[in-house]
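It is worth pausing here to work through a concrete case rather than discussing structure prediction in the abstract. The textbook approach is simple: state the sequence, then state the predicted structure, then interpret. We follow exactly that order.
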Amino acid sequence: MRAEQRPGENLLKSVRAFVEEEVKPSVSRLDLEDEYPQAHVDRMKELGLFGTLIPQEYGGMGLPLQDYARIIIELSRGWMSLAGILNSHFVAAWMIETFGTDHQRVGHLPRMATGEVRAAISMTEPHGGSDLQAIKTVAMREGEAFAIEGEKMWCTNGLHASLIMLLTKTDPKAVPRHKGMTTFVVEKRPGVHQQPGLEIPSLLEKLGYRGLEGTRMNWKGFRTPVSSALGGEEGIGLGFKQFMAGIEIGRINVAARAVGIALASYEAAMDWARTRTTFGKPIAEHQLIGAKLADMATRIRAAYLLTIEAARKKDAGERADLDAGAAKLFATELAEEAAFESMRIHGGAGYLQDADVARYYRDAPVLIIGEGSSEIQRIVIARRLVELAESGGSLI
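Step two, the predicted structure:
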């Protein structure tokens, strides 16, 4: 699965070396202790990873999404949580670049490119996940500011981020509902649980995806200027559409993370199968184990190609909802299956808590749920397929 020579090839090599030399030796301890990987984050800043997708005019690398997807695959081979630190950051950066005002671009993107400012996205609420139009967090205008009231859930990077891309309702009575939704680029103090108008309670205890915080956010009259509405005053009421466009970037990231986990699961299974001996020969030479490895490898290659094609279409400015949804659906379901098959190939050794394959098995399910569950992806895909059929479009 070696990529053709691309502008990001040297960076990809650096990321691969970082994973092998620094991440893999430390990941088991960090994961089991649920410790934030500050040293790795600092190294990611040095490598320039927080500016990968940000245009050069704002201090970033301006790499295509295809290169970014390959980088995410490499990071996830080492530890999927590191790729999660980048995901919400780049969704926020892309939304600012695409929908923001000139003032917002100049004010935020250069500092985001260096990692000085790290971003999170916040849309999900405790009472519902997939039905974003049902959110209850409101932003009420008070002169030249909005006061935010409500509770958010599952905000990845929520504590360490200093910039929150926040979805709210500025007109709760709007019909249709999405016309009353607005995105705010909210600045806050990083690493602080309490500040005026915002409380971040104790971090969520998760099955996997550890080392990276998931948070609740309780907004209690937090004031943000009118100018922080994404796109300025003209962006008020456009939040739902802005987030839906940004989520396509997130789905490609999640698909790439899933490919990384599946690839790591396969590599671990292959290494074990070549060295583990039963009945006088390596278990890789037993037909049933060989068939498992063949199926894993074939499906990983398919998931990789789906992910890169979705990224290519997004790079080209083409409609990519079908492709991103298909990549996310296929790759994330595969990641869970590959992790489980790798654990089965390892036998009892794969069931130990500090085993790499056990971590893959704990990490994979969140990818099926996040950025739109597999059930939601199937709905998105089916609707787009009907549109294609009615318009005479081609599936391939």
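Step three, interpretation. Residues 160 and 191 are 5 Å apart (CA to CA). The mean pLDDT is 95.
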